[in-house]
Automatic annotation (TrEMBL):
The keyword Chloroplast does not apply. Residues 1-123 form the CMP/dCMP-type deaminase domain. Binds 1 zinc ion. It catalyses: 5-amino-6-(5-phospho-D-ribitylamino)uracil + NADP(+) = 5-amino-6-(5-phospho-D-ribosylamino)uracil + NADPH + H(+); 2,5-diamino-6-hydroxy-4-(5-phosphoribosylamino)-pyrimidine + H2O + H(+) = 5-amino-6-(5-phospho-D-ribosylamino)uracil + NH4(+). PROSITE patterns: CYT_DCMP_DEAMINASES_1, CYT_DCMP_DEAMINASES_2. In the N-terminal section; belongs to the cytidine and deoxycytidylate deaminase family. In the C-terminal section; belongs to the HTP reductase family. It comes from Fusibacter ferrireducens. One of its GO terms (molecular function) is diaminohydroxyphosphoribosylaminopyrimidine deaminase activity. This is Riboflavin biosynthesis protein RibD. Converts 2,5-diamino-6-(ribosylamino)-4(3h)-pyrimidinone 5'-phosphate into 5-amino-6-(ribosylamino)-2,4(1h,3h)-pyrimidinedione 5'-phosphate. Its EC number is 3.5.4.26, 1.1.1.193. The keyword Manganese does not apply. Its cofactor is Zn(2+). Keywords: Hydrolase, Metal-binding, Multifunctional enzyme, NADP, Oxidoreductase, Riboflavin biosynthesis, Zinc.
Length: 369
């Protein structure tokens, strides 16, 4: 069997950690001796043993002389758990086949060096692209110190996100809404503008398991958050940031509003604003510094426009419902004034088309500018 064959199995194991290991990467490992798989494991839960350790513990046969396949370079640092390199060396494994290097500066190539100095053969970059893709949020955050940002909206076949009176339930069907629930489980944070909170009073959770719900982030420069909203009522149990204007935080009204929100359980984050608009680049930078690796932006059209204008998004999910609303006044997904010339359009690369019942989902990557 090829290296790719076993790495694929390791990748399938890795994604079983989805939603449970973040902000750690998802990692899978397979141990093979004489063409036979003798052990398998993956990183199951944040703070618990790494993939390699679980694979070693699962071995029934002799590990000496075996090959370890692992989707990410083994760590060599003391984190919440001891270094995987030490356990590998102790086990008598002869060869380690790695999907991709760990971008964490505490590891980044050092894990490989340690294994090599102990006489272990190391094979690198097997299914590297796929191994990076499963942890694209972790890689992006390590490199950019900013969260990986994806935007999601649902629009009608004529490109509207609500009627002219603001009704938006429902543009997309049940299947699409179930899909969005799965997305919420994948992203560490979910962001909306305060307009959406006031208009729709959403909960913004992963409903099947609140423990896997993303952190909620509300852009609310003037602290208009209603204290009776569903979000406010649940802020003590589900971590929720309110991002607001630094200028407001220095006024007396700002201070009293801030106190009232803190009593409700909100975490307050102030960032500079210009003409009442938050500096979103600084907001995302601050969220990155708080360890938030990925954010799903769920609108509305004002927030979406600001995110796109500043080039802050990497990925886009567009759901298209089989309906037409019509009208000049009905909102479209991206508000503001838009660009004047076709040459200023934001370019996208289409990566996926999916039919979901009567809806269509289009997934795009934002082309780098
Ligand atoms: C591995 N195997 O399965 C994972 C690794 O705090 P800790 O001890 O859990 O360490 C977290 C760091 O370890 C994380 O930032 C990443 O660099 C690496 N993750 N390494 O060898 C694994 N999950
Ligand atoms: Zn490790």
């Amino acid at each position: 069997m090829t290296h790719e064959h076993y790495m694929k199995i390791a990748l399938e194991l890795a994604i079983q950690g989805l939603g449970r290991v973040r902000p750690n990467p998802m990692v899978g490992a397979v141990i093979v001796n004489e063409n036979k798989i003798i052990g398998k494991g993956y990183h199951e839960k944040f703070g618990e043993p790494h993939a390699e350790i679980n694979a070693l513990r699962s071995c029934v046969d002799e590990v000496k002389g075996a090959t370890l396949y692992v989707t990410l370079e083994p760590c060599c640092h003391y984190g919440k758990t001891p270094p995987c390199t030490e356990a590998i060396i102790r086990s008598g494994i002869k060869r380690v086949v790695i999907g991709t290097r760990d971008p964490n500066p505490l590891v980044s190539g050092k894990g490989i060096e340690i294994l090599k100095t102990q006489g272990i053969e190391v094979v690198e970059a097997i299914l590297q692209e796929e191994c990076m893709m499963v942890n694209r949020f972790f890689f992006h955050h390590m490199k950019m110190k900013m969260p990986y940002v994806a935007m999601k909206y649902a629009m009608t076949a004529d490109g509207k996100i609500a009627t002219k009176t603001g009704e938006s339930k429902w543009i997309s069907g049940e299947g699409s809404r179930r899909y969005v629930q799965q997305l919420r489980r994948q992203y560490q944070g979910i962001m909306v503008g305060i307009g959406t909170v006031i208009k729709d009073n959403p909960l913004l959770t992963y409903k099947a398991d609140l423990n896997q719900s993303p952190i909620r982030i509300i852009c609310d420069s003037q602290l208009r958050m209603p204290l009776t909203s569903q979000i406010a009522e649940t802020a003590k149990h589900i971590k929720t940031y309110v991002v607001f204007s630094k200028e407001l935080s220095e006024t007396r009204t700002g201070l009293s509003k801030r106190k009232a929100l803190e009593r409700k359980g909100f975490c307050l984050l102030d960032v500079p604003a210009k003409a009442g608009h938050l500096d979103l680049s600084l907001a995302f930078r601050a969220l990155g510094a708080l360890g938030i690796q990925s954010v799903l932006v769920e609108g509305g059209s004002t927030l979406n426009e600001a995110v796109i204008r500043k080039g802050l998004a990497q990925y886009l999910y567009t759901f298209i419902g089989s309906k037409i609303l019509g009208g000049h006044e009905a909102l479209t997904p991206i508000g503001g004034n838009g660009v004047e010339s076709m040459s200023d359009a934001r370019a996208l690369d289409l990566v996926k088309i999916k039919k979901i019942e009567e809806d269509v989902l289009l997934e795009y990557r934002f082309r780098k500018e």
